[in-house]
């Protein structure tokens, strides 16, 4: 198999990471990378790490032109832009469309509107399947339009999913810290090095957009349309990665002890045989996943069984963006799930 792939909006960090993975994927042949701002410029000039892999230049073709003849089209655009071009991409009839933005992640349009405003292309939302690859696995086979999860949302949902059917009574609190690459390629005051280095600060307090997709799935898993979870996001003084800690109170009986299942056992059952989720016995460190598609998780329970704490580390640009999107592509097309993704990170980094 030689898959023809187009990446629309490939000049950003997520697009560059996706190109890095695609150019080394054993089943991918031609790769077209488009960018309005970098049209005609060698990919290796915008993404210097890719210079040894390709001499390709960015195309300035329209999304429709670039999608014509492609087997798979990735939309690596800023939020709101995918909705503007999705119709013409579908009209070009690729076998699979994968959106890395937030446009099609939430099928509950009221919930979407609360965090993002009114959807500009609501008629397209039902076409997409939310592609949380490490949970859905082979259920993604044959899907033709996928919405890749957000980076915070990926870490949060991997922490939440095994707890959904447990007897927890508290509202999960999810404290997460991300690196500066999560803010995108365009400089901002909060990503400027003097503001970011040696610093830590909260942002999007009580209103981070990734809560929309977290709540959407958490409520479905719990079977409770009023179920709640709270994401608390922070910016850290590093470039790549997300470190997330979940804490929640578990249900207790009349004797004051937990009536929940063993938390560690829940996680082992949920992620048995999942190739990119590693369960560990000691608190995971961010540097152990940088550059990889792995999620490393530790799940622990208090001595009296009444509290659970879960630590998750991922690379926001791989597992939280390009890597998970490629994993979803593999699953959709019936390829080995780990094709092009089975590599270790760098330590120290």
Describe the protein in words.
There is one protein chain. By secondary structure, the protein is of the alpha/beta class. It has two domains: 3-149 and 319-333, 3-Layer(aba) Sandwich (Rossmann fold); 152-315, 2-Layer Sandwich (Dihydrodipicolinate Reductase, domain 2). Helices cover 26% and strands 19% of the residues. It has helices at 13-22, 43-46, 63-67, 82-91, 109-116, 133-136, 151-160, 193-196, 211-222, 263-270, 318-333; strands spanning 3-8, 28-34, 72-75, 96-99, 129-130, 145-147, 173-178, 201-202, 230-235, 242-249, 277-279, 295-301, 307-314. It has a seven-stranded mixed β-sheet with strand order 8-9-7-10-13-12-11. The protein has a six-stranded parallel β-sheet with strand order 2-1-3-4-6-5, with helices on both faces. Strand 3 (72-75), helix 4 (82-91) and strand 4 form a beta-alpha-beta unit. Helix 1 (13-22) packs across helix 11 (318-333) and helix 7 (151-160) runs parallel beside helix 9. The longest helix has 16 residues, at 318-333. It is globular, with a radius of gyration of 20 Å.
What key phrases describe this protein's structure?
Dihydrodipicolinate Reductase, domain 2; 2 domains; 7-stranded mixed β-sheet; 6-stranded parallel β-sheet; 13 strands
